[in-house]
Amino acid sequence: MIALRNILVGTAMLSFGMSVAEASAVHLGRNTERVDPISGLHWQRLLDPKHPAAPPRLSLQRSSGAELSRHGQSLQPVLCVRAGDHVSLRSANAGLSMSSLQATVLQNGVCGARVRARVAVTGALVEMTVLDSGAAILSGKVSSWQ
What single-letter DSSP state applies at residue 125? Predict the structure, then answer.
């Protein structure tokens, strides 16, 4: 008798739990506009009909003019390297050998920018592409290191 009662109560709880989960999934899946409380930006959640299990994408809908001007000032590129920084300079060849030397940056640059540097061992002036604050790839031939 107790076992039968436990089975009935368990089945009722399971069916109630499933309906609550389905309702919350439907609520999350709708294309709704959300407001970011910090920035004030309005975002819309968009579902991909081809991939219903994928998470929704966010699309910027609108913003106030004051918010845009404040964000526009903060979108200036951030320097990855500054003149005088030491970086590890690597060759860009895809062969079996990998070359790496220390170099001193001669110009400020953002990530992806081409700047000049001086190789520490040889003193040669080279042009490099900045990868990160301490890494760069040689732009040009390996023979220019000498």
Answer: E
CB 146 within 8 A of CB 99: no
Enumerate residues 6+ apart whose C-beta is below 8 A from 103. Answer: 86, 87, 88, 89, 117, 118, 119, 120, 126, 128, 136
pLDDT digits (tens, 9 = 90+) for 104-141: 999 999 988 899 999 999 999 999 999 888 889 988 76
97 compared with 10, residue with greater pLDDT: 10
Chain center to CA of 41: 19
DSSP3 helix / strand / coil % (the chain, rounded to 5): 30, 35, 40
Listed in sequence order, the residues at least 6 apart from 87 whose beta carbon sits closer than 8 Å to its beta carbon are 81, 102, 103, 104, 105, 117, 128, 130, 134, 135, 136
